[in-house]
Protein 1
Amino acid sequence: MTSLAVLNLAYNNFSGEIPHSLGSLTNLKALYIRQNSFSGMLPSFSQCQQLQILDLGGNTLTGSVPAWIGTDLLNSRILSMRFNRLHGSIPSIICQLQFLQILDLLTNGLSGKIPHCFNNFTLLYQDNNSGKPMEFIVQGFYRKFPRRYLYIGDLLVQWKNQEAEYKNPLLYLKTIDLSSNELVGGVPEEIAEMRGLKSLNLSRNDLNGTVVERIGQMKMLESLDMSRNQLSGVIPQGLANLTFLSVLDLSNNHLSGRIPSSTQLQSFDRSSYSDNVQLCGPPLQECPGYAPPSPLIDYGSNNNP
């Protein structure tokens, strides 16, 4: 089956290891095996250099995130390995995937630090509003005659705290989800350079340091979840500049100081900031001793003092 372009085995009850022979499908563009019971380590797909979508979520795969993804799958646009049993660190070599729009490593056992090179994801660096369609022209037969078909893919993803299946997600979604792992260290400042990113979820790790100071550059961000970490320091004023932000969760950290004043940040529920003992200001209780600034009065240049 050397001409096979799309293989969709999702939502079955397949078990055992993923056959190594799949790595010989050199024309494969999309592989969906999510929501099965595949186990063991991922075989090499180094020969599948046209592969754009690798959807492995919802299995019990073990081992680490393979380095060959970053060296050989340079056309990758979707990499979903969510809900598996992967361990080890996130290899910085995956930053070579310039066309990547969706990186989903939710709920594994990944450890180590977040690579500082995520700003190399070129499509996430660009702040244009849409991506390219996720469509493939595949060969088929109709009444024994060859025919070309348009295959439109889908993806299961968590978007704005809701898990749903999206048809043609690359038209809109630009997401990174590293939540529910064992990641440590600070949040790299380079993340703020991903101006096209729409959803960032780093929750339920062991990250420390501060919220990225330049986060206000991420103008397209609609959902930000950094809850249940060890983050400290103040909330950057730039967060108030994210006018598309509709989901925010900074709860269960060690943040302090006053929440910046803006229509945007005060519109979120108290739960977005809860369990930060030293954090204050609306929508939480007001900071002790806080007095609002006095309005400036312009008496005009023609008036006597």
Note: The radius of gyration is 23 Å.
Protein 2
Amino acid sequence: MAGMIRKSLNEPEETRRFEDGKGKLDLINLESGGVGRAVFEPGWQWSRHVKPIAGTESCQAAHRGVVLAGRMVIVMDDGEEQEFSESDYMEVAPGHDAWVVGEEQCVILDWQGFVDYAKRQD
């Protein structure tokens, strides 16, 4: 590993857009994995705006990150539910749906689950 690495999410190596213009994921790639910043627009829901891209019944990515702005509800396949808001750290196992709460964008920085998130499985 180099002594220092500098990359900017303002100049991502990849951008993935969600269905219906309901947000995007900016991604930078590192040897240890990807780091992503996702912007989820009001009205966004995983099962409506990412499921058609992912092709799975629920989100199969594990997430570890921080909510930078807004609010999001995440519901696990077993029914467990939690709302996350600004400055909350989150760890979420695979097998969930999620949606934005309110009229503010939800912005999340994730350093575990965004490498394959919203990526078409061809």
Note: Residues 14-110 form a domain with the Jelly Rolls fold (CATH 2.60.120.10).
Protein 3
Amino acid sequence: MGAVLGGGLIFLLRAVRPEALIQTNFADPDALDRFLQSFRNPTAPFLPSSLASDALDGLMKGRFTLEFFGLVGLSLLLLALAGLVAGYAYQIGWVRALEGTVQERGLRGPGFWDRFGASGRARALWVRDLRLFFRDANQAAQLVLVGVLVLLYTTSLQFIPLEGERFRVVVGFLHLAFQGFVIAGVGVRLAYPLYSLEGPGFWLIQTAPVSRLTLLLTRFGLALAFLLPLALLLGLLSPQVIGLGANLTQISVAIAVASAIASAGLGVGLGSAFPRFDASNPAEVPLGLGGLLYMGLSLLHSAFLVVLAARPVYLSFGSRGSYLAGPEGPLWLLLLAVVTLLPALVALAFGYRRMGNPA
């Protein structure tokens, strides 16, 4: 809840557009009115914001309105509900904290994840890793911060004053670079620490009938499950916010997916080559040579993808057709696949070799 509220506060501060305070001439009545209109409360009569607006309007005129008493009653009701929930949570937590206290849950049949994990070793590892990931408050909070990061990025793009088709395409080209940097930054917190999260209990995995290759590939699949949705969201949503055409949207999605695959491969491979099982917090795992190599190689890969996208973006100035459907499209996709899979496979191979004898 702390991460959700903190992320919501950060997004709210960005959504109110603080730069408008500098750009607005408050001496101009029309500019002031436009500024206030952009922060109008919702007009639904039962929302607390509307009740507060009507109550303040009545108080300014020297009278108590029905909305004022409704707002006071709603505040008291919410305060009473918060007290009941807090008292119940404190009582349950205090009882569970007593030594030897056991809560009887009864017999329950296997759920979906239990049946999914029982069908193979790889799926069992995925289910175990997902459960461990979401049970860790630090890791679960990372997903909230990732969502806030995407919202901040897309919101900032929405408020850029774009005048003219050429300037919009230039901003779209810069977006191709920034989305790779965003994915690389998220990967260092989600993909790189996956192998080190085993912690001191890593010996349990070593005694289990699981090969190093299976362990490595399941980590890679889990990293893709985290990074691919983010890449698709950035690749599809950001061009729509900027107002790019279908041609650049396709290029953006291809570049985003390539960045996600490369970041997942580099993160899992280098994270397996330079593990830190003694880290008390997942944020401490990338602090070392492996994390530095990951960030350097990821940013270098993102920069190379931008160079690779220069020609499709340049050709989009005078063409409305799809670049990927043209004669150069398949060759460009093949080159994109090579420069994406090559560093990912090399990093995974390097991590596989070091997993047996980490230094």
Note: Residues 2-101 form one domain.
